[in-house]
Amino acid sequence: MKNILQDLSREELTALVLSLGEKRYRADQLFVGLMQGRRISELPIPYPLKARLLETYEDEPVSVREEFVSADGTKKFLFELADGSLIEGVLMKYKYGNTQCVSTQVGCRMGCKFCASTLGGKIRDLTAGEILCQITAVNRREGGTLKERAVTNAVLMGSGEPFDNYQNVVKFLRNLSAEGGIGISSRNVSLSTCGLVPEMKRFAKEGIPLTLTVSLHAVSDAERRRTMPIANRYSISEILEACAEYFEETGRRYIFEYALIEGENADMVHAEALAALLKGRPCHVNLIRLNPVKERDLDGTDERTAQEFLRALTERGISATLRRSMGSDIGGACGQLRARYLKEYGG
Ligand code: SAH
Questions:
Q1: Are residues 67 and 201 in the same domain?
Q2: Best mutation site among 104, 108, 115 for ligand 1, i.e. most ligand atoms within 8 A of its Cβ?
Q3: How does pLDDT run across 144-175, given as a tens digit for each residue?
Q4: Where among 9, 33, 59 does a domain terminate?
Q5: Does residue 88's CB lie within 6 angstroms of at least one atom of ligand 1?
Q6: 36: domain range?
Q7: Of 184, 115, 130, 62, nearest to 339 (Cα)?
Q8: Residues in CB range of 316: below 8 A, 6 or more apart
Q9: What is the value of pTM for the model shown?
């Protein structure tokens, strides 16, 4: 695989262009063109410069291989990377804008029992540009421009653990919000982690005020270890402490993801324990009924149980919502599309 030009920041692009003996304004043309989701070969720059760039850099690091449209308007994309790897992404349409869910790794090595992304382990990290190109490709495909964006929000909730690919993810976040580019502000971004405590603490110091989201899914360390191997490394109380640090640094309320799993974490005692754990903290709880994954022996609760769980939290003063599961007819749960695709077509 060649290098990825979209990995570079605007300043790095400028340095590259100058080192090739070109005028500075060429860097601006490159930056804008790439942010518009164009291939290098499509950029409005002279042929010799194009040819030089194409010797070293991938023309199109991320291309859409398949698109699935759900009855609720959610779109799911299967992307192909330059080395043939497949990743997936989702575009969810809400009243306030369109949110794209991006992947940060090919596969995942965190091993959560309920998640399809981790079934084959981690293949490799994505580069900053490969994460960005998922968004610029979809924005373009959906008719968006840099002024009138078709993608207004981003969530790092596709396959992969963002904090297991720390440097590339941080670089991506800076390029995503950079002036003159696609300009998605960190305030419109959520980063979801299974709770890598050292990286959470490090991230608090980066000066990137996004919505930090932690996949909790259990109320005690012992129960959490049953579904999330990372719970053997970090305790819930360490996670809560790291969240508090993030709030102190950024003033941003944080979110806990809690997937309701039948017979595992969804009883009234769990709701009460969760409320006690989070009481008085500047946080919000996103409940979701687990999307059953065929390869796993776990199921989501019914709607009524989920509503009761939600009520138990709100009655105890915890800010919480039950998320609609969007696009379940097109392979809603994490990694399902890629997993199915690999099985049916062998990649
Ligand atoms: N690795 C990160 C981000 C990717 S997963 C993390 O763990 O947070 C994004 C979210 O989807 C996480 O909250 C994850 O726990 C959740 N998730 C994974 N599989 C799911 C399933 N089958 N049903 C519902 N949510 C699921």
A1: yes
A2: 115
A3: 999 999 999 999 999 999 999 999 999 999 99
A4: 59
A5: no
A6: 1-59
A7: 115
A8: 272, 275, 276, 279
A9: 0.95
Are 42 and 152 part of one and the same domain?
Answer: no
What spatial distance separates the first Cα and last Cα of the chain, rounded to whole Å?
17
Q: How many domains does the chain have?
A: 2
Residues 14 and 103 in one domain: no
Please name the amino acid found at residue 160.
G
Report the atom number in ligand 1 closest to the C-alpha of 296. Answer: 22
Query: pLDDT at residue 289 above 70?
Result: yes
pLDDT in tens, 92-105: 988 889 999 999 99
Token pair recorded at residue 223: 């129960």
27 and 149, same domain (yes or no): no
Cα 149–chain centre separation: 18
The reply to whether 70 and 11 lie within a common domain is: no
Burial 131-151 (b: 16+ CB within 10 A, else e): bbbbbbbbbbbbebeeeebbb
Residue nearest to atom 18 of ligand 1 (CA): 115
Same domain, 65 and 145: yes
Query: Does the pLDDT value for residue 31 go beyond 80?
Result: yes
> Alpha-carbon distance 58 to 4, whole Å?
6
Residues 46 and 77 in one domain: no
What are φ and ψ of residue 52, in 5° steps? Answer: -65, -40
DSSP run (H or E) holding 49: helix 47-56
Residue 20 sits in a domain whose CATH number is 1.10.150.530
**Residue 289 neighbours by CB distance under 10 Å:** 23
Instruction: Give DSSP secondary structure letters for 97-146.
Output: EEEEE--SEEE-SS--TT-GGGTT-EEEEPPHHHHHHHHHHHHHHTT--S
The residues carrying an active-site annotation are: 88, 334
Say whether both 273 and 234 belong to one domain. Answer: yes
